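Module 6 notes. Inverse folding takes a fixed backbone as the condition and produces residue identities as the prediction. Think of it as a translation problem where the source language is geometry and the target language is the twenty amino acids. Below is one complete input and output pair. Work through it position by position during the lab.
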């Protein structure tokens, strides 16, 4: 269903934007926003996307391959940067004659604080809309999907998703209410094996939000300043949590290009990762220096 253009929306940075017509040439400031577009346009989420950061191949190679198989035109989407605002090319966006840029408030690609980039794009007639699935996911995911539904003329699809999203959250909330147990102390080990040091964690926002919402006591909350940081493995050994939760890396292309002895030392899950590969990656992660005592707990 087409949107009622022109329309005015308020994005997740609190900015009011007027969209005169349905966007035809879209830039994604985080290539993984293609997943959100897939919810709103199941027939072809790549339609109208002319440029995006090139990090999807590196961060979620398995999903990229699945999109490529179903929507081969994804290979024609131009790269406008890698995984940071510093790599973002305004010139490439202008060459592509984009009329809409979808950016994260704070994350990969340009954010709300990158005023010079935003001003350049807006002066060239590119509408910039900020969304957020990262900093406050439970609160801002519904808001972001609603904004995208409005801007892209897909409000019915956004409403259907939000109804589903709300029902599933209520199911989880009711289950937790019925459980009524004391909050277990939880350590969230982020991106196991990506770095040599141990142990990266999240204290606020991002995945930490889900621990809080599920009734856990995130031990990093009072120890790590900001949203994320590193906790000392010796501290974890002397203050062992009740629960250890690790996050995987996704489905890196290295899984396709190397044998099991050369595979990267992190946990791999998701699209394109077989059960055998996932189990093998978990065993490798168990052997990481500094991680083994925590993981075995």
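Target side of the pair, the amino acids:
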């Amino acid at each position: 269903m087409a949107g009622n253009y022109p329309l005015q929306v308020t994005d997740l940075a609190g900015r009011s934007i007027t969209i005169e017509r349905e966007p035809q040439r879209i830039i994604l400031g985080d290539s993984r926003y293609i997943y959100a577009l897939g919810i709103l346009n199941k027939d072809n989420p790549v339609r109208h996307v002319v440029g995006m950061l090139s990090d999807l191949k590196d961060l979620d190679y398995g999903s990229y391959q699945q999109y490529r198989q179903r929507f081969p035109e994804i290979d024609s989407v131009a790269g406008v940067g890698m995984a940071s605002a510093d790599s973002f090319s305004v010139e490439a966006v202008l060459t592509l004659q984009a009329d809409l840029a979808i950016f994260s408030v704070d994350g990969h690609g340009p954010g709300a604080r990158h005023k010079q980039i935003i001003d350049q794009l807006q002066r060239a007639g590119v509408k910039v809309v900020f969304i957020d699935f990262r900093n406050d996911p439970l609160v801002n995911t519904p808001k972001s999907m609603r904004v995208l539904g409005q801007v892209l003329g897909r409000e019915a699809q956004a409403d259907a998703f939000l109804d589903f999203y709300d029902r599933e959250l209520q199911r989880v909330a009711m289950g937790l209410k019925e459980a009524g147990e004391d909050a277990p102390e939880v350590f969230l080990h982020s991106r196991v094996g990506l770095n040599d040091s141990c142990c990266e964690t999240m204290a606020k926002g991002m995945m930490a939000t889900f621990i809080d919402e599920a009734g856990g006591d995130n031990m990093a909350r009072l120890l790590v300043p900001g949203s994320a940081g590193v906790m000392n493995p010796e501290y974890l050994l002397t203050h062992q949590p009740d629960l250890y939760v690790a996050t995987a890396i996704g489905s890196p292309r290295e899984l396709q290009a190397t044998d099991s002895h050369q595979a990267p030392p992190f946990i791999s899950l998701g699209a394109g990762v077989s059960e055998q590969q996932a189990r093998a990656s978990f065993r490798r992660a168990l052997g990481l220096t500094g991680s083994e005592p925590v993981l075995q707990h």
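Reference fact for the lab report: Residues 83 and 108 are 6 Å apart (CA to CA).
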